[in-house]
Design brief:
Layout (H helix, E strand, L loop, with lengths): L15 H7 L1 H14 L26 E9 L4 H4 L4 E6 L12 H4 L5 E3 L1 H13 L5 E4 L5 H11 L8 E5 L5 H6 L6 E4 L6 H8 L4 H16 L3 E2 L5 E10 L5 H14 L4 E5 L7 H4 L12 H14 L3 E2 L14 E2 L3
Parallel strand pairs: 2-4, 4-5, 5-6, 6-8, 8-9, 9-10
Antiparallel strand pairs: 1-2, 1-3, 1-11, 7-8
């Protein structure tokens, strides 16, 4: 039975409502689950049967593992607004970034295993708390589980925009299943050189897959667009973590993004610091330092020289009480 739905915010309706009402969303869920049988959800193509709770690189079987969820006030202003971005942090990852600042979650799959009903409940709880959107963090390996949860949350009242917060190591086939469901894509384009990606993330094909993924995201939703309240409503917001001594990667990435669209909204992130193996292993001594102010200034100059003009700038103050994580009960 189809359920009629109405947007909770006047003048805005998430794109997934139409797909739910037509029955297309349910069909997408079925197709996504088939990809778990011999897993090809992400570019790793591990071919294990995750429906039988087996796993490989991502350390995630049939159900998603959630480390925490909470209204996040550390995201871009256009996402966090005044009441926070409703983040759901998935454990596990398909990359092995030696500098990962969340390595305890990404590499160890710490958290609670959550069936789709549980994930749907987390989404609705964040909506009740007043969050401006639902922000799935590191969802590349759990696209089928995300689709399941959204399909269950809609008839229970979900009406917020969906943010897909990713490393950009995504399968284009998985992204196509999200077409018309995700409102805001937020990929982090990390590396341009294949050898860098191999050395620092154990994924030499990362640059190729990231370009394919961001092109598909742009095809679906286009450049980032805002509501009258200044909050993001639909489009692509690209992040690029500027790394010490790797400005040539930055030059190539911003040039490619400008070729895709000079209207690309870009956040040049300055929060790199050496963590996990980058801090302790002498093999990575070249990135065992913070990014300098001159490097950040040069990165911004490279972006502007390439023709990009929509560079993210912070302007709101963060509440000292905001962003406290809520662990998911087992």
């Amino acid at each position: 039975m189809r359920v009629k739905t109405r947007p909770a915010t006047k003048g805005f309706a998430p794109t997934y409502l139409r797909l739910y009402e037509s029955g297309e969303l349910g069909e997408r869920v079925d197709r996504a689950l088939l990809a778990l049988r011999s897993c090809e959800v992400c570019p790793r193509n591990c071919r294990v049967n995750r429906l039988e709770d087996r796993f490989a690189v991502c350390k995630t079987g049939r159900h998603a593992v959630v480390a925490s969820y909470f209204p996040h006030f550390g995201e871009e202003d256009c996402l966090r607004g005044w009441k926070g971005s409703g983040t759901i942090f998935f454990s596990g990852c398909n990359l092995r970034c030696v500098f990962c600042q969340n390595w305890d979650i990404s590499q160890n799959a710490v958290g609670a295993e959550c069936p789709p009903e549980k994930v749907a409940g987390l989404m609705l709880d964040l909506q009740r708390q007043g969050c401006h959107n639902i922000n799935f963090v590191t969802p590349e390996h759990v696209v089928p589980q995300v689709l399941e949860a959204i399909a269950l949350a809609i008839p229970r009242g979900l009406r917020l925009p969906i943010v897909y917060n990713t490393s950009a190591y995504d399968s284009v086939a998985s992204l196509k299943l999200l077409d018309g469901i995700v409102d805001i894509y937020m990929p982090d384009f990390k590396f341009w050189e294949r050898e860098t990606a191999r050395r620092l993330a154990k994924a030499k094909d990362y640059p190729d897959r990231a370009r394919e993924a961001i092109q598909e995201m742009h095809r679906q939703v286009g450049p980032l667009k805002f509501g009258h309240d200044g909050l993001a409503r639909r489009g692509v917001l690209v992040r690029h973590l500027v790394m010490p001594g790797r400005l040539e990667d930055t030059r190539q990435i911003v040039g490619w993004l400008a070729g895709l669209s000079k209207d690309t909204y870009l956040n040049l992130m300055d929060q790199y610091y050496p963590a996990w193996k980058a801090k302790t292993n002498p093999r990575f001594a070249d990135i065992n330092r913070r990014v300098t102010h001159p490097e950040m200034a040069q990165a911004a100059g490279l972006a502007r020289a390439a023709g990009l003009w929509r560079l993210d700038e912070r302007w709101r103050q963060v509440s000292p009480w905001a962003g406290l994580a809520r662990a998911v009960e087992r």
